[in-house]
Design a protein that fits this description.
- The complex is a heterodimer.
- Chain A is an alpha/beta fold.
- Chain A has one domain: P-loop containing nucleotide triphosphate hydrolases (Rossmann fold), CATH 3.40.50.
- Chain A is built from nine helices and ten strands.
- In chain A, strands 6-7-8-3-9-10 form a six-stranded mixed beta sheet, sandwiched between helices. A four-stranded antiparallel beta sheet of chain A has the order 2-1-4-5.
- Chain B is mainly alpha-helical.
- Chain B is built from eleven helices and no strands.
- Chain B has helices spanning 2-13, 16-34, 39-68, 70-77, 83-113, 117-143, 147-175, 182-189, 193-204, 213-222, 224-252.
- The longest helix of chain B has 31 residues, at 83-113.
- Chain B is globular.
- The chains are: A alpha/beta, B mainly alpha.
- Chain A binds chain B through residues 11, 45, 48-52, 68-70, 72-73, 75, 77, 79, 81-88, 92, 96-97, 99-101, 138, 141, and chain B through 3-4, 7-8, 10-11, 14-15, 68-69, 71-72, 74-75, 77-83, 252, 254-255.
Chain lengths: 235, 255
Amino acid sequence: MLHVDSLTKKFGRLEVLNSIQLEFQKGTVTGILGPNGSGKTTLIKCLLGLCHFEKGNIALNAISIKSEKEYKSYFGYMPQIGRYPENMSIGDLFELLVSLRNQPENELDLELWELFKLENIKSQRLGKLSGGTVQKVSAALAYLFKPEVIVLDEPTAGLDPLATEIMKEKIRKESSGKITLITSHILNDLDELCSHIVFLNNHKIAFSKSMKELKASRQGLTLNQIVAQLLQGEA
Amino acid sequence: MSTLLAFLLSNHLKSRFVIGYTLILLLVSSALFIFTDNPQKGLLGGVNLVLLFVPLVVSLYTGISLYHGEDFTRVLLTQSLSRNQVYWSSTGSLQLSLQAALLVGLGIPLLLFAPGMPAVALLAGASILSLIFSGLSSLIAFRVNDKVKGIASLFLMWLAFTLVFDGLILLFIQLMSDYPIEAAVIFINLLNPVDMCRIVLMQVLDAAALMGLTGALLTEYMGNLFAILSVLLALLIWLIVPMELSRRSFLNKDF
């Protein structure tokens, strides 16, 4: 269980996250939504230990975020914009990341590596790859170490339809036994994938509900329509 | 951590920028010796190369590659690594690649055309300036979030240390020429790593007369050995303080 306890983050005097209280259970896929500037990215960065925060605590199964290395060893992260050292090859990058962890090779998850056919292009230089291929590399890296928590930032943006389907299938398949967090503006994808939705607005949690509850409260609407209503209600 | 360092170093060594820097150093420093009639003149030309060109290239490359590498740094920081490890691998690989470029680009021509103590001093000076400017630039790159502002600041820093500072000293000497300002001039020179290197190199190359007032004054006031030691100490401070500040900025930065 990933536990976020009264998390507060400021950039100078601007409060970007205001006492956020959240719990993510194993086996759930949570979509993190909100208008631009609501603090989604900052929340994710805090969870990943990329941003420092003033108040509050984050812990995964009682392992505090302050125990830098141990906490992070349970995380897999797929960034929205991946940019890797230009002059190295895809193969070099994977070798590096594998050698940084002491995880035996047979315990690695190479499914996306195979499905995205990265083996065939592993000697290509990272600086020469197209945006979509970079996304494939990032996705394969995120799942590589069988992490307990997987954080996907716009996982399907830039992927072709086939790769998008592979990615969605992977997310679904791996969701049991993992905590999956997704941000995306493609709400149709989230509608299919997520079991829970966290909606951030004005640097606070507007609501955190399961998909069932959310849909029951607004009968017959798709996630798209619900979010549109919520945003309009704000404006 | 050494795997990461080796990986990043290999990436730098394959970059066009570092290869180009090495080749330009190689060409220019060879030309300095080939087209002058004695090695002493070649060495003096080498001093200008080391004092002006090296800091500029080092600052720009450090800035560009740190800003460019920010996305990958973010990925590394989500791996099971401490921030310190990521910091030392990123800046260390950068420093080492720039040192390698110097060793090949400047070291080989010096060894071929002017082997001896002055050549060693010149290479050592270049190496220290490279370390100092890369450290200062990494401090700027981690402090200034905006890439364009950061690169502009690096350029201004280089301009300040190489041109503006000397201009101000000359102005100071001009304005205060009626007063005994020699000791003050020496002290002010210690505030600038480029000037310090110039002083030491000129002393070693035995061309103190060429460098005008400060070098002669320095010898007169402090004596050779003591002068050089105090300059070396000042250089060491210029090296360690910015690096430590840059490490702290990195540890506290929001990526």
